[in-house]
Design brief:
There is one protein chain. The protein has 375 residues and is of the alpha+beta class. The chain folds into three domains: 107 residues, DNA Polymerase III, Chain A, domain 2, CATH 3.10.150.10; 119 residues, DNA Polymerase III, Chain A, domain 2 (Roll); 121 residues, DNA Polymerase III, Chain A, domain 2 (Roll), CATH 3.10.150. It contains eight helices and 26 strands. It has a nine-stranded antiparallel sheet. The protein has an eight-stranded antiparallel sheet with strand order 6-2-3-4-17-16-15-10.
């Protein structure tokens, strides 16, 4: 068996599926790429048994065949080879040889091990979205996901809520929540799916610049792109009702320059006690004061920013790292805080034009921390 392909074209395809190879696994077969040549097309598959990635590219081949080879070694070797013609050939029962005009490289391959089959997903629902938009949504939402919660598995994924009036994406860890609503997308069959965080992370790396077709059944979701597709198990536990945790009575309005606030929060993080993680905001009519201290190191920081505020003066405390993450994933010039009391969740929304509001609504919810004398 042998095939011929341009080294950089092969490298580009391998880069799309290498994220599916687990860094640690109890099943050694998962450390491999599964390669199949059929009618002049090379299919390359990787998996951790939760998510499957498969890409395809055209090659010049003498026959159809399948084999496994170590994914990391194969990928690292191919990407180290300059732009040239690459000849790949099985020279005996276990040796795979890659040749260029200037080099010969020998790897092991295997045809005997069973590689997991990609699940077939029933097209119970189908939907299309721009990959660039999807990438931006995932990057702006996934940071809020709780990636390791073993007792509330539902929040270890991102909610895709297909509604009759909009498409809503939600991520939360119980301390912060991000909801991004896309009004240009509507579904005739409203339903929800929860996609694992690892899957959304992989998807965001490969979907930019492509049209993405999504279809799913009760157990799996399939993301189709021109030369790549991803099949992933769904989180089957029911997602919490995110609508009920968003307060409706927050009437104290604080508007502040986002970048200035982000920079100040970043500075305050330098003085935040790693154990208590507390940033105090003292809010007045025309100014907001940020204060953080660490009594262990006898250090503290104080910043004052101009702001617009309608409401009675108040002190409220937040985890500065959570606030930094929320502000850092917005792109607006100003951000609006909707507040109630020092113990109630704050709502953060970007200050944008009416035209932008008609396309997308971005809402972040941040739980306060108890004002404490410990620092």
């Amino acid at each position: 068996m042998k095939f011929t392909v341009n080294s950089k074209i092969l490298e580009k395809s391998l880069a799309k599926v290498i994220p599916g190879v687990p860094s640690k696994t109890m099943n050694p077969v998962m450390e491999n790429f599964f390669l199949q040549v059929s009618d002049g097309t090379l299919f390359i598959t990787s998996t951790n048994e939760e998510v499957f990635l498969q890409c395809n590219l055209s090659v010049q081949a003498t026959e159809d065949f399948v084999f496994l080879t170590n994914a990391k070694l194969f990928y690292d070797l191919v990407r180290s080879i300059p732009d040239t013609t690459l000849y790949v050939e099985a020279v005996d029962q276990s040796k795979l040889q890659l040749k260029t005009d200037n080099g010969v490289y020998n790897l092991n391959y295997d045809v005997s091990q069973e590689f997991p089959q990609i699940p077939v997903v029933n097209r119970e629902f189908e939907f299309q979205i721009s990959g660039t938009l999807l990438k931006n949504i995932i990057e702006g939402t996934s940071f809020a996901i709780d990636k390791t919660n073993q007792t509330r598995m539902a929040i270890t994924g991102m909610l895709f809520d297909f509604r009759s009036d909009a498409l809503v994406f939600v991520g939360t860890d119980g301390h912060k929540l991000v909801r991004r609503t896309q009004f240009e997308f509507k579904s005739e069959t409203p339903h929800q799916i929860v996609v694992p965080e690892r899957t959304t992370s992989i998807l965001s790396k490969v979907c930019d610049g492509h049209q993405v077709t999504l279809f799913n059944d009760a157990s799996y979701v399939h993301f189709q792109m021109p030369d790549l597709y991803i099949v992933s198990k769904l989180v089957t536990m029911k997602y919490p009702n995110y609508q009920t945790v968003i307060p409706q009575e927050n009437e104290k309005m604080l508007t502040v320059e986002r970048k200035a606030l982000l920079n100040a929060v970043t500075r305050m993080l330098l003085f935040s006690n790693p154990r208590f993680q507390q940033l105090r905001l003292s809010i007045k009519e025309n100014a907001i004061e940020l204060f953080s201290e660490d009594s262990n190191s006898h250090s503290s920081g104080l910043d004052t920013l101009e702001s617009e505020y309608t409401g009675t003066p108040m002190d409220i405390s937040f985890n500065p790292q959570f606030m930094q993450e929320i502000l850092g994933h917005l792109t607006c010039e100003k951000v609006l805080f909707k507040l109630d009391t020092p113990t109630r969740a704050a709502i953060l929304v970007p200050v944008v034009s009416e035209a932008e509001k008609e396309k997308e609504d971005i809402l972040s919810l941040l739980m306060p921390v108890r004002l404490s004398t410990h620092s």
